[in-house]
Design goal:
The complex is a heterodimer. Chain A contains eleven helices and no strands. Chain A is mainly alpha-helical. Chain B has a single domain, classed as MetI-like (MetI-like fold), CATH 1.10.3720. Chain B is globular. The termini of chain B are close together. The chains are: A mainly alpha, B mainly alpha. Chains A and B meet through helix 4, helix 5, helix 9 and helix 11 of A and helix 1, helix 6, helix 7, helix 11 and helix 12 of B.
Chain lengths: ~300, ~325
């Protein structure tokens, strides 16, 4: 027989993928989390086609209409309307676009900068490391939401500022994780071998070290994603994030707050969607950690 | 131990300087002229502009400005609020006890429920009770607390009428300010009605603020209990024939607590961040609400002062946590 490795032999990418999937899907929570997030993403993508109404359209004849299961409810507004007659369901669907895309951007920004700074700190050590870790310590000394609020106050409230502020707050976690992972990997033999083979700093950092440091970073990315959704909503709720009339989940809650005595649905549903989304991402994160972290792996 | 303390203190110095630089830079990073920005849409007369400029020292070199800021800070001078014109330090200190009282009750709630829940989940690992506790704590951990607060208000205040919607104490009571803690001050005054009213006002905000710390503490307790339960000395203790209660309380919990205490300490930053939202929802007159008001009123000296003071509090608490960790776990001192 020829010595061609079968596609599912240990070491091949397909084997790793398969092993990862079996570990990941072993946790039912992680699996349902993934399905839910895929569903929310689909809704966000298809919002313009599947939302029953324009999220900004105000129906003056249908103010604070209750959800369909109430006697006064209407099939036209499944989850009811808000104080100016906008459809809650459609706003939630469009809101998913904002919450998910802003949070994804937050993760991408903080991960990119965090990995870069963490690689520098862990690879070069010395004063580079001291400066980077000290700066990150300063960022961590401020409660995250407060720092984000301060940054938003400087940058003026809005979508972009909220995004930058929250990415900044998330940065230290990526820097610390990358640095720790790089320090752990740097003295391994494959790195020495690569260096002896003549690899330069950049090649060692990005091609040799980084791929072997990714596991904890991926887990952190899911955690950051859920934290970002919460923080974006918190900023929106405080009036410092995405500005009305944009149908962002947190801002929807803030608008509905004064009517919570008479219109529970306008308050309940946006919060419920935030909770479910965050919860499902966290479930998925737990599953990822179990699947990616060799220490946690069931052997 | 003393050496350990000195090392920790020395590590804090650069962070301290960094925090002051961030706070100092804050006003100067505002886009456009900070004085015009603070004046808002009303505009300013030329004299007032010059007066403010010299008041803030914007007409001097940056390094001199920073030095003045730093020395002022070390003397407890953080400038004056643009809105009330009283010193930022006084404004902060008059509101800080309210936040502290709320945070202490929230943390107590989180520990009293979270710790036993974590222990029970670990003992009943894999059973329904464990899954329930893990599920609830993951939900709590994912909770948007501003929504949670609104839900609780809708249920307990609006529908059932059990708890008040906002404030620290009923208008019926007037209590002398001794410690700033309504519960303690009302006891000092010997007014039971006021004490109960203060407690009554604390319940919902403390639950809301304590929810995420509770979830974190329960999760951490469970996982470190599970870790310790697998240790050889626990097996030895069991093999010696000790009762399971004794094995769990003395041999396991005490060792598991080391990491739990660290996690509890780390909740302080989270509590202060959560206080911003909780105080806004319940109109709780603490520093969180004060910061939000300062930001929306463009009261930049107050925001700057608040940033610095809150960061100091977080740093000091983290230092204390480190020290406590050194005391209970002598291994890390070396």
């Amino acid at each position: 027989m020829t010595a061609i490795a079968s596609p599912t032999a240990p070491g091949t990418f397909r084997y790793q993928l398969k092993s990862f999937w079996s570990d990941f899907s072993a946790s039912r929570g992680a699996f349902y989390g993934l399905i839910f997030i895929a569903f929310i993403m689909l809704v966000a993508l298809l919002a313009p086609w599947i939302a029953p109404h324009d999220p900004a359209m105000q129906d003056r004849s249908a103010l604070l209409v209750p959800p369909v299961w109430h006697a006064e409810g209407s099939w036209s507004y499944l989850l009811g309307t808000d104080a100016v007659g906008r459809d809650v369901l459609s706003r939630l669907m469009y809101g998913a676009r904002y919450s998910l895309s802003i949070s994804a951007m937050v993760v991408v920004i903080s991960m990119a900068f965090g990995i870069f700074l963490g690689l520098l700190a862990g690879y070069f050590r010395g004063w580079v490391e001291t400066v980077i870790t000290r700066v990150m310590d300063v960022v961590l000394a401020f409660p995250s939401l407060l720092l984000a609020l301060g940054l938003v106050a400087i940058l003026s409230p809005g979508l972009t500022s909220a995004m930058i502020a929250i990415a900044m707050v998330q940065l230290p976690y990526f820097v610390r994780l990358t640095r720790a992972a790089v320090i752990g990997e740097k003295s391994r033999e494959y790195v020495t071998a690569s260096r002896l083979a003549g690899a330069g700093h950049l090649r060692l950092m990005f091609n040799t070290l980084l791929p072997n440091c990714m596991a904890p970073l991926i887990v952190q990315a899911t955690l950051s994603f859920s934290t970002a959704i919460l923080d974006i909503a918190a900023l929106g709720f405080l009036g410092m994030g995405v500005q009305p009339p944009t149908p962002e989940w947190g801002a929807m809650l803030a608008n509905a707050r004064e009517f919570m005595g008479s219109a529970y649905w306008a308050v309940t549903f946006p919060g419920l969607v935030i909770l479910l989304t965050v919860l499902m991402i966290n479930l998925m994160g737990d599953g990822l950690r179990d699947a990616l972290d060799p220490k946690m792996k069931r052997s | 131990m003393f050496r350990f303390l000195l090392v920790k203190l020395a590590q804090l110095v650069p962070t301290f300087i960094g925090v002051t630089i961030v706070a100092f830079a804050f006003i100067r990073l505002l886009p456009g002229d900070p004085i015009l920005l603070m004046a808002g849409e009303r505009g300013l007369s030329a004299e007032r502009y010059a007066q403010l400029q010299s008041q803030f020292g914007f007409d001097r070199p940056l390094i001199v400005q920073y030095w003045d800021f730093l020395t002022g800070l070390l003397h407890g001078d953080l400038g004056n609020s643009l809105v009330t014109h009283s010193p930022v330090m006084n404004e902060f200190m008059s509101r800080f006890p309210a936040t502290m009282e709320l945070s202490i009750f929230a943390l107590a709630f989180a520990v009293i429920i979270g710790l036993p829940a974590g222990v029970i989940a670990a003992i009943r690992r894999g059973k329904t009770l464990d899954h329930t506790i893990v599920g609830i704590s993951l939900t709590g951990y994912s909770m948007p607390i501003f929504w949670w607060g609104l839900l609780l208000i809708m249920l307990f205040s609006s529908t059932l009428g059990w708890t008040p919607v906002s404030g620290r104490i009923s208008f019926m009571y007037f209590i002398d300010d001794v410690t700033g803690f309504m519960t303690i001050d009302s006891l000092i005054a010997g007014d039971w009605g006021a004490f109960l009213s203060a407690l009554h006002h604390l319940v919902l905000p403390a639950i809301v603020l304590g929810t995420i710390p509770l979830a974190v503490i329960a999760r951490q307790t469970r996982s470190s209990m599970l870790e310790v339960l697998g240790e050889d000395y626990v097996r030895t203790a069991r093999a010696k024939g000790l009762s399971s209660f004794r094995v769990i309380m003395v041999h396991t919990l005490r060792n598991a607590l080391i990491s739990v205490i660290t996690v509890i300490g780390l909740q302080v930053g989270l509590l202060l961040a959560g206080a911003i939202l909780t105080e806004t929802i319940f109109s709780w007159p603490g520093i969180g609400k004060w910061m939000i008001d300062a930001i929306s009123r463009r009261d930049y000296p107050s925001v700057q002062g608040g940033l610095v003071l809150i960061a100091f509090i977080v740093m000091i608490v983290n230092l204390l946590v480190d020290l406590a960790y050194g005391v209970i776990n002598p291994r890390i001192r070396h």
